[in-house]
């Protein structure tokens, strides 16, 4: 996708890469950028996420802030004429911002297959922006990827070198937060959904086929052979049932909000047209748990988000495998208090899907959700402005059993009770 560069382009892109190198030396994700108008630089930035502790301090955002402080109101006009040179395809957050600012052109290094918001997972169409930016993509990709590799290798002291080499195509599985907490307006939930669907499809989901790959080595009599096949098919069916139990449990719980499980949003027209309830602001807190037998590090990237009912929001969890063995994980979740679960809708999340993490590997796991505007009409929730979303990651094994939702002793009390709200589920 690389295109011929003009001499001017080369000079400015070189500066963006120099800034990316500076970021790398400061243990930041190596991304740098320069904004240029009529051959003159108006602002520059590099990633400052770790330095500031602010997950939105991406190179592009840092540069835009600098431009605004330098040029004030004039910035809007300047940015509309500007060319952005950046060492890596801007993430979803930054790309969306660039489209809304209406910059003229973008020249970037490597594609960012998991988070790239220009072409890889996002696009102007998905942000519902008519404005089209001229794009020169995939320039000096190797150099950009080289820096990212250097960064992740620094961050992954546990990964044995020979194993890391085999993971080259999956560089993006180890991506640190390019996008951490974004509260989207209801304007673009569908675009965000599309982004997330593609994004999460990149996450490894173990195929049942892998489990069934047991070669038959029966070379005895035909009867014995048949018997072996019979037993094997039973084993396969049993394994299949174990896996089918998970989607079945999910379907049951999602249909019923059972156990504080939230609703899964399917009516996208409704989402696109729902009205934000400005006068209620709900605090959504995030919690993560791993049982002691699970060796992943798993935590939310934000402790809380404030969201109006009728507004979509995006949050992320991070999971990392610090061990030297691949581990498969699977998560379940619940929401407390249970009453609120009826109104909590997940448009996309990572629960109930198996994820495999290689040694030292880290992934960002998105939760894209909204609270139904009807929340404000439920008298039981009149004084409830704080909810807790909790995910637990288990190590997935063929014998793994999630709690049986039909077992009466697992049945939570979901009756609304105005004077007493359950503290914690499970
Ligand atoms: Zn970004």
UniProtKB/TrEMBL annotation:
It is a single-pass membrane protein. The keyword Transmembrane helix applies. InterPro entries: APOBEC/CMP_deaminase_Zn-bd, CMP_dCMP_dom, CtaG/Cox11_dom_sf, Cyt_c_oxidase_assmbl_CtaG, Cytidine_deaminase-like. Exerts its effect at some terminal stage of cytochrome c oxidase synthesis, probably by being involved in the insertion of the copper B into subunit I. It holds the Pfam family CtaG_Cox11. GO terms for cellular component: mitochondrial inner membrane. It is found in: Mitochondrion inner membrane. Keywords: Membrane, Metal-binding, Transmembrane, Transmembrane helix, Zinc. Interacts with CNNM4/ACDP4. Interacts with RANBP2. It comes from Caenorhabditis briggsae. GO terms for molecular function: copper ion binding; hydrolase activity; zinc ion binding. Residues 401-426 are annotated as: Disordered. It comes from the Eukaryota. The chain crosses the membrane at residues 227-249. NCBIfam families: PRK05089.1. CDD domains: nucleoside_deaminase (cd01285). Its main location: mitochondrion. Residues 7-120 form the CMP/dCMP-type deaminase domain. The keyword Zinc applies. This is Cytochrome c oxidase assembly protein COX11, mitochondrial.
